[in-house]
Amino acid sequence: MQKTITLNPGESKEVSFTITPQTVGVHSVSVDGLSGSFTVLEPPTAEFLVSDLVISPAQCYPGELVSISVTVRNIGLVAGSYTVTAEVL
């Protein structure tokens, strides 16, 4: 990346560069002999907790309906989708 600037005698000007890093980790920066670094963090994720299994009724006869439910809570930092899977063995 380069930028060309024109300055009058005694004048100074801030020169900025912007990037959009795509790789997680520490990145080194060098600008005309000055150096520094910045860190790109893992993006926040949704994290789900499944709890409170309720089966009703606990006993039944063949052909009767049984209701099965759970509570799903997003304990992460961003919105997300979660697929709940129920199995009857």
List keywords for this structure.
two-stranded antiparallel sheet; 4 strands; 89 residues; mainly beta; rod-shaped
Descriptive notes:
With 89 residues, this protein is mainly β. The protein has no helices and 4 strands. It has a two-stranded antiparallel ribbon with strand order 1-2. Strands 3-4 form a two-stranded antiparallel sheet. The model has no long low-confidence stretch (mean pLDDT 97).
Q: How much of the polypeptide forms β-strand, as a percent range?
A: 25-35%
Oligomer: single chain
Contiguous low-pLDDT stretches (5 residues minimum) are: none
Shape, principal axes of CA atoms: rod-shaped
Helical coverage, percent range? under 10%
The sequence of SSEs as H and E is: EEEE
Structural class: mainly beta
